Amino acid sequence: MTRPEPLLRRGLMFILSSPSGAGKTTIARKLLQAEENLRMSVSVTTRPMRPGEIDGRDYHFVDCATFDRMVEDDAFLEYAEVFGHSYGTPRAQIRDGMKQGDDYIFDIDWQGTQQLYQRAQHDVVRVFLLPPSIEALEARLRARATDAEDVIVGRMARARAEISHWDAYDYVVVNDDIEECFTKVRMILEAERMRRARQTGLIDFVRGLMR
Ligand code: 5GP
């Protein structure tokens, strides 16, 4: 028996937000490995590149003048200032990819989430990851970098500020165990893909069934 073609589907914008240290990057990476038709939205930023980062993969690194020009040209789906630097989601690529049924993961903060939701409510799925405890989050932040104490304290303050926006998301997952959290987030993606409104090929398919 031949396998039927997958139904035509409109892509979705899968937003993953969390305080830094709650495992968002790991979950995003695992999803990208596991799922075809899933891409990462690469943001534009004015913040300096960190060691290990690659221009075009982690971010498109630009200077402030370039960023401002892109704002004027309406090149961003959303943009915001986070921790003193500008970040924005480039509009190009995403719209076209979504029409072809590609889904995009967005690693953006609550401000960007709010803007995207206002602009593209029906395409947006908002997922927020929480750490199992504030101690666990602090331990992860400390283990991750050789940062000075005041940097850690600053990061914890920002983490608390980010956590306070938990109620602006559709799904909230506590990341107690990375594999379990990954499975849950993947289930959310699978379920959201099956929403009737996203399955643009359904009408023809069902017509065929009833013929
Ligand atoms: P970092 O500089 O550590 O990579 O990211 C700092 C924060 O900026 C994170 O909370 C991340 O989610 C957020 N961020 C990254 N890209 C974008 C973007 O395009 N738009 C918005 N609004 N936030 C972003």
Structural overview:
By secondary structure, the chain is α/β, with parallel strands linked by helices. The protein has one domain (about 15-200): P-loop containing nucleotide triphosphate hydrolases (Rossmann fold). It is built from eight helices and nine strands. The strands form two sheets. A five-stranded parallel beta sheet has the order 2-7-1-8-9, with helices on both faces. Strands 4-3-6-5 form a four-stranded mixed beta sheet. β5 and β6 (about 85-90) form a beta hairpin. The protein is globular. The model has no long low-confidence stretch (mean pLDDT about 90). The structure holds guanosine-5'-monophosphate (5GP).
Helix and strand layout, with pairings?
Blueprint: E1 13-17, H1 24-34, E2 38-40, E3 44-45, E4 60-61, H2 64-72, E5 76-82, E6 85-90, H3 94-99, E7 103-106, H4 110-120, E8 124-130, H5 134-144, H6 149-163, E9 171-174, H7 178-193, H8 202-210
Helix pairs in contact: 1-7
This protein binds guanosine-5'-monophosphate (5GP).
Summary?
The chain is an alpha/beta fold and 211 residues long. The protein has 8 helices and 9 strands. Strand 5 (76-82) and strand 6 form a beta hairpin.
**How many strand segments?**
9
Bound molecules: guanosine-5'-monophosphate
Query: What form results from the Cα inertia axes?
Result: globular
**CATH architectural name:** 3-Layer(aba) Sandwich
Name the average pLDDT. 92
Order of helices and strands: EHEEEHEEHEHEHHEHH
Helix content: 40-55%
Q: Helix/strand/pairing class, anyone?
A: alpha/beta
Low-confidence stretches: none
> What is the C-level CATH assignment?
Alpha Beta
